[in-house]
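Limitations

Structures in this collection are predictions, not experimental determinations, and the ligand pose is part of the prediction. Treat each record accordingly. The example that follows, with zinc ion as the small molecule, is included so readers can see exactly what is and is not provided: the inputs are given verbatim, and the output is the predicted complex.
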Amino acid sequence: MIAGNTMEPSKHVPHLVPTLDRRSFLGVSLGSAAGLAAAGAIAPSLTRAMQPGRPGGTPRGPGGKKALNVIFMVSDGMSFGTLSLAEIASRVRDAKGTHWVELWGREGVKRSVMRTASADSLVTDSSAASSSWGCGVHINNDAVNFTPDGKTPVPILVQAAQNAKATGLVTTTRLTHATPAGFIANCPSRNSEEEIGRQIIARKVDVALGGGSKYFPDSLLSKRPDLRVLRTHAEFDAYRAALGRAPSGPVLGMFQKSHCLYECERDNIDPSLADMASLALAQLSTHANGFVLQIEGGRVDHAAHANDAGAMVGEQLAFDRALGAVLSWMENRDDTLLIVTTDHGNANPGLTLYGPDTYKGIERLCQVRHSFEWIFDQLGMKLQYDDAVAATKLSEEDRVGSLVRAATGIQLGRDEIGAFVGALHNRNPQLFEPMSRSSSVLGSCLANHYGVGFISPNHTADFVEVTAIGPGSELIAPFIDNIELHGVMIGALDLRPAAPL
Ligand SMILES: [Zn+2]
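Predicted complex:
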């Protein structure tokens, strides 16, 4: 067997921090680090070390202005280096910056730095992180709005629906994947995606667009005859063209059995994230009582796990185009809170060579045609690798070299190919063990050509960027804990307390 190319986070560290009961959280002043520590949400030593030092806020903005809508955008697994690389790539390739960085210069924009630890790990996974926003409670990695003592706090989309708000989920992953699940579902394990699919159907999301049709079988869909189901880009376009001419009921668009295609190899087969976001907004904004919409660029994370710099920057730029579509929709509106952030860093990429070649490296990065996933598929990762190699007349080194060249335009050197082939056969252990994965070794080989290196194939504990604008954004302090964004959304919308599930 060859070295694994798994995208899953590595093993969890032991329980570190006591979990907070939701009622206790709501009983303390919103966002106050001292209050959170008193309620046991943050280990006291951590709190001392990270004292944000601000008084607790109120759950409403100055003047009582409340938000009709909330749009919560997540670039999953986006280290700050990823955001930087996307901005640099956009300027090198297109001579213009990204919408995200442009947003920082706008009047009224609030920025914050956010810590991301979960209840049982300094390095969170996506389901615990999304649940922190979904229900305002720290839970263990792997769980979805499900506390270690078995409580099931009400996720924000359920609470919003109880308050007569419309709801939406847009993602490039499976709709049943961790981040969308954290806004709608309760489950002891993120891997129970059949159950998460059932909850998405039962809890009646108004607009759901993404991948993951394998978890929405006909037997499940038959329970919701009111649901309009879209399965192809052509059906998506036809639905969009008809929107507004006829009253629209709830819609479920699933364009792949599993995740949507990477942007660099999408070839217009799937709708883009920007198009899905625009359609969701067009439909949700017909609801007079407002909406809560989560939009996720979910495969930034997958490419970062693979140390695949080209695919990762492509995903981040696609996310940024979706942000551009959201900002266009928000123009001349003052009734919508927009939060743009990530759930955790991942692999901490960075441009780290000097000189004029840095520009050349970024140009190469922008020309990537295929992801590492494609390279590994071609190498027969899903078959027995040795059989796949034997089936071709090329030497293993030539075959690997030509596939990497087809995907990236880069001809690896002999030593680099040797290192990668060694990793494919588990013959190239790295001193930092996680970097022994064959995808990380390929990422390191290509770092010589892009100038972009990675520190690991895993999530990181780094603090992350939060950018927000609109009513309620004034509640966000300069340094926050991820669970605070739940209270910010509830406060901005002035939602009534949730009825128990
Ligand atoms: Zn994540």
